[in-house]
């Protein structure tokens, strides 16, 4: 990983948040020199603070149990528990925790496994001094961060699935799920949705859970934003 460069001006695309409370970061890598270099990159930013370090995935989980953290930056290849295994454990332990994978592997298989495990970003160590700070801020805005090659891999994988009939781009949601989504976005309660669609409240809850899972979203606000982007309701 290249040596950290002196801090430059904050770019317009990734401005430092104005919040007085820094983002609390757990950094896990089995190489102490790598952790030191990454920590220098992060700690020089006023809105980022490394509050815990770990030498493997198991230590990362223990650190997350004992300390309040907002973001975990994990290497993929670590002893005892890998970064991928630790990600799955951390997602279950702290559902609101954001997780970034920091790795030397420009590898599609690792990329897909990381995203499936629950990571919201994938950063290469070779360009960590350029990308990591922006990735941390994107993660805390609940936005994905992928390097350009990763974006290309995801698009290629998606198009392959479409060609093989494994993914119908026009049928991500069922008609009923789309109806529920529109009503949720319009602010209706579960009881009101049940009455409008002549289904049970329990069924409404099941459809809403399916929507969140399919779309990779977390709450009503994010469902509403999606409905606006999909043209189901007007902003």
UniProtKB/TrEMBL annotation:
UniProt-listed Pfam families: GerE, Response_reg
Protein's UniProt keywords contain Electron transport: no
Keywords: DNA-binding, Phosphoprotein, Transcription, Transcription regulation
InterPro entries cross-referenced by the UniProt entry: CheY-like_superfamily, NreC/VraR/RcsB-like_REC, Sig_transdc_resp-reg_C-effctor, Sig_transdc_resp-reg_receiver, Tscrpt_reg_LuxR_C, WalR-like
Positions bearing 4-aspartylphosphate: 75
Keyword Glycoprotein: no
Span of domain Response regulatory: 24-140
Domain HTH luxR-type residues, every copy: 166-231
Top-level lineage group: Bacteria
Gene3D superfamilies for this protein: 3.40.50.2300
Record's protein name: Response regulator transcription factor
């Amino acid at each position: 990983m290249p040596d950290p460069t002196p801090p430059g001006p904050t770019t317009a695309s990734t401005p430092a948040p104005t919040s007085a409370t820094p983002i609390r970061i757990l950094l896990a890598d089995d190489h102490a020199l790598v952790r030191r270099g990454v920590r220098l990159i992060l700690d020089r930013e006023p809105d980022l603070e490394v509050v815990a370090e770990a030498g493997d995935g198991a230590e990362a989980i223990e650190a997350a149990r004992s300390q309040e953290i907002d973001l975990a930056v994990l290497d993929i290849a670590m002893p005892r528990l890998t970064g991928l295994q630790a990600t799955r454990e951390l997602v279950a332990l702290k559902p609101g925790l954001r997780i970034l994978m920091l790795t030397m592997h420009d590898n599609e298989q690792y990329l897909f496994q990381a995203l499936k495990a629950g990571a919201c970003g994938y950063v290469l160590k070779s360009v960590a001094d350029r990308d990591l700070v922006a990735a941390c801020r994107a993660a805390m805005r609940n936005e994905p961060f992928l390097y350009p090659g990763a974006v290309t891999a995801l698009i290629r994988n998606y198009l392959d699935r479409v060609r093989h009939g494994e993914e119908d781009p026009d049928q991500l949601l069922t008609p009923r799920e789309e109806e529920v989504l529109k009503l949720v976005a319009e602010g209706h309660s579960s009881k009101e949705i049940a009455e409008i669609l002549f289904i049970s409240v329990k069924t409404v809850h099941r459809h809403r859970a399916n929507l969140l899972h399919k779309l990779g979203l977390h709450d009503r606000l994010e469902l509403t934003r999606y409905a606006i982007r999909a043209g189901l309701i007007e902003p």
